[in-house]
Amino acid sequence: MTEKENNRKTMIRWPGKEEIxxxxxYNLDLLKAxxxxxMILCHCVLxxxxxxxxxxxxxxxFFGDVVLGDYIAVAHAFMFAMGVGxxxxxxxxxxxxxxxxxxxxxxxxxxxxxxxxxYALIEGVISGEFEPQTLEALFGPDIFHFAGLAMxxxxxxKKLRLNEAHILFIGILMSAAGSFLVLIDTGNYVxxxxxxxxxxxxxxxxxxxxxxxxxxxxAGMMFGVIVRRVENAGVFYKRLLAVSGIVSAIYIAxxxxxxxxxxxxxxxxxxxxxxDAIGLLCTDLFLISAFYYIIKKFxxxxxxxxxxxxxxxTVIYIIQWCVIGFTDSVFGYVLEYDFPYYFIYPFGFxxxxxxxxLARLWNKHKNKKSAxxxxx
Length: 376
What we know:
Distance between the termini: 68 Å
Shape: globular
Number of helices: 15
Radius of gyration: 21 Å
Strand content: under 5%
Oligomer: single chain
Number of strands: 0
Helix content: over 70%
């Protein structure tokens, strides 16, 4: 049998029942590392770039906010990677997912406090008046809250003995519903904040609503199941690279023609609709396929830094937000500094490096502390 015939036979049989590829997906690590870089630059532009008039028309603001923040690989890549992680982790029992989900969800509020909440409270104490933005700073939904709820929901669905195909179907149904439930205003700020965890309420009270974004997690889980059972990973990623590349190219070309998130109601990023979600998922699949061949060509050892970044994602996320929150609150709002882009982008790159090394120091301290003997 020729190699071509063997490859064709392999493609017909996948995915099999036996899990063959159970080792770490280093191409997924590279996807997450790219998302970290894009995320930090996006957050710097998004939070610091608004301090001068006409920022909406700045090409450098558009690049940081839309190109890096919406399309290349940020939130959707993290959520997709999280879904893959649910399949590859050793702690994937429903109880483990639910417990970890609760911890991550609560961690979101802790981050809110240290990111912007503490500065909003100080301002309120000094001025004697607490604005609604104080509630947003303290209790506004963010990706940690979404991640926690996604873990809890996945644990519940697993408890009901649903497999990844069932979960993907549920994710698609949720996304379809979320495509229409857009900018639902209850008329009450607190209710909007609470409901904004699940459906998209107002622009300042909802972020990564579970209904709209769970499809990325579900798709990641399905991808994880498939890739673990594929007999010929090279052929699999070759086909996936071609298909996802074509769809991504068409989607991006139509975006330039029809506008940002042109398939989402009111083109609101946080209310991403199902068709746009599929387009963004294709960019994730294209990148993860390309990274597979890049690692195959250059070897894993060339990407130690990127893999370490991927492993330290949670700590890096917290560090970069705390630094941005301090810089924005103190220098942007108190001192009223007008951040030019020749400051913002270098600041973003320096923050990438600083967050990486601070995360490394934190993990060394944590590991050293856990290895220390307990004195009674």
